[in-house]
Amino acid sequence: NKQNWGNPMKPLSEWAGLTVNRHNQVIKIILPSNNLSGAIPDSLYYLEALKILDLRYNQLSGPIPVSISNLSNLTQLYLHCNKLSCEIPPEISKLTQLTILDLRNNQLVGVVPTTLSNLRQLKYLGLKSNRLSAFSREINELLPWCRNVV
């Protein structure tokens, strides 16, 4: 759905998939199943007021940019069912407001960063169907407060 995207004549509040606050700052990007492809742009991470980023069920590829750590207000991150292929950047642990981190069904590799233990608000962690070398038991020990690890 590309309704009004990039149209400078339309306010951000009218762009499909975006929600803005009263200061016209983007607080939600919800664009699942939009056939988005390519890398996640670094410029996305300048949206400092962003609370929810939902890009699931697209064709996004490449790494999760390290600059994701700029999104300090992010509470929910949905990147599952894409083609992301990289290690989980340890910088993701700077997103201390995260309650949901869903990275399932990608091509992520390596170990789950132990720095995820900084995510004290996390209630859901989705990692299955990747090529990660940590097991659920180890992750549960790392994040005992996280109610749902899949």
List the helices and strands and how they pair.
Layout: E1 18-20, E2 26-30, E3 37-38, E4 52-54, E5 59-62, E6 76-78, E7 83-84, E8 100-102, E9 109-110, E10 124-126, E11 131-132, H1 136-142, E12 148-149
Parallel strand pairs: 2-4, 3-5, 4-6, 5-7, 6-8, 8-10, 9-11, 10-12
Antiparallel strand pairs: 1-2
Overview of this protein structure:
The radius of gyration is 15 Å and the shape is globular. It has 1 helix and 12 strands. It is mostly beta strands and about 150 residues long. It is about 5% helix and about 25% strand. A hairpin with a 5-residue loop joins strand 1 and strand 2. The two termini are about 30 Å apart. It has one helix at about 135-140; strands at about 20, 25-30, 35-40, 50-55, 60, 75-80, 85, 100, 110, 125, 130, 150. The strands form 3 sheets. A 7-stranded mixed sheet has the order 1-2-4-6-8-10-12. The model has no long low-confidence stretch (mean pLDDT about 90).
Helix-strand string = EEEEEEEEEEEHE
- Mean pLDDT, all residues: 91
Into which percent range does the helicity of residues fall?
Answer: under 10%
* Content of β-strand: 15-25%
| Separate helix tally | 1
Number-wise, the strands total: 12
Termini separation comes to 30 Å
